[in-house]
Amino acid sequence: MAEQSLPLSVDERIEQHNLWWAFHKHLMIEIFEVLRDGLGDEYLVDLESEILLVSKAGPTRSAAPDVTLSATPSGAAPSDTPKPTLTPALIEADEEVMEFEQYSVHIRRRDRPHSDDPFGVQVVSVLELLSPSNKGASGPRDRQKFLAKRQDYLLSPVSYTEIDLLRGGERELPAAVAELADYPYIAWSSQWRPQARHYWGWGWQVEDSLPTIGVPLEYPHVYPLNLALCYQRAHERNRWPERLQLVEGRS
Fold first, then answer.
1. What is the pLDDT of residues 28-37, one digit of tens each?
2. Which of 38, 42, 40 lies closest to 225, judged by CA?
């Protein structure tokens, strides 16, 4: 199937069938490759990941325990305290937990040393593609963690880009781009400039093609990222029409 034959709008079925965990990676790989190949030799582009544990049953509580147990040191005498008989439980069940790998793109400038970076050079731009957990699908903890990380970027000299292709979940935006909240799909970016932080925002309807957005680097540089092309490649190369046909054939 030729790339031109595929729709350039968002395929809503991916979110409807709870398959974003798979498509997220496919799309981020295409975005990474376009940026890696399109930026000059002075940049290093990396696809970085973080593992999240998400309950399929919905929000989960914090993993911090109320009581901790320690093993008896080897050779220590066992306690003489009699052990109570376990009262039969009213409920005993397993709750399936899914491992989700959240990806982001980090762009570094090779000629800007930074001692705290693994490669010894400065991160100048970060791109995030939102997942359901970023928008509260697995409870408030992951969402709050994501928003705190985003705020750290916005209070630093790092440029930032965020893409939200999910209609579900909570959406919280900086005041400068708050008007985007009513669009089904959005993207926005921000660049540190002398005396200010500059913002761009894009919003589009379900039937619209994905836009070409600006991915800001260090001021004044901005790279045009064709989201429609990245989406199209992710959709076709990973056989999403066939995947969705299989899923819908089971229902």
1. 999 999 999 9
2. 38
Which token pair is 146?
Answer: 């994501």
Lowest mean pLDDT segment, chosen from 36-45, 87-96, 159-168, 204-213: 87-96
Which residue, among 61, 213, 198, 53, has the nearest Cα to 129 in the 3D structure? Answer: 213
**Segment (H or E) for 146:** helix 140-154
pTM: 0.81
CB contact at 8 A, 39 and 107:
yes
Tokens standing for residue 132: 């359901």
What's the pLDDT at 8? 76
Q: Where are the beta strands (DSSP E) in 61-217?
A: 97-113, 121-129, 159-164, 185-193, 196-204, 212-216
Measured CA distances, 92 to 42, 62, 89, 97, 221 (Å): 57, 20, 7, 16, 57
How do strand 43-55 and strand 185-193 relate by DSSP bridges?
unpaired
Return phi, psi of residue 17, to 5°: -95, 15
> Where does the pLDDT of residue 90 fall: very low under 50, low under 70, confident under 90, or very high at 90 and above?
confident
Is the pLDDT at 1 greater than 60? The verdict is no
How many helices and strands, by DSSP H and E, does the chain display?
A: 5, 8
The tens digit of pLDDT for each residue in 66-84 reads 454 555 565 656 667 777 8
What's the rounded Cα separation, in Å, for the pair 20 and 35?
A: 22
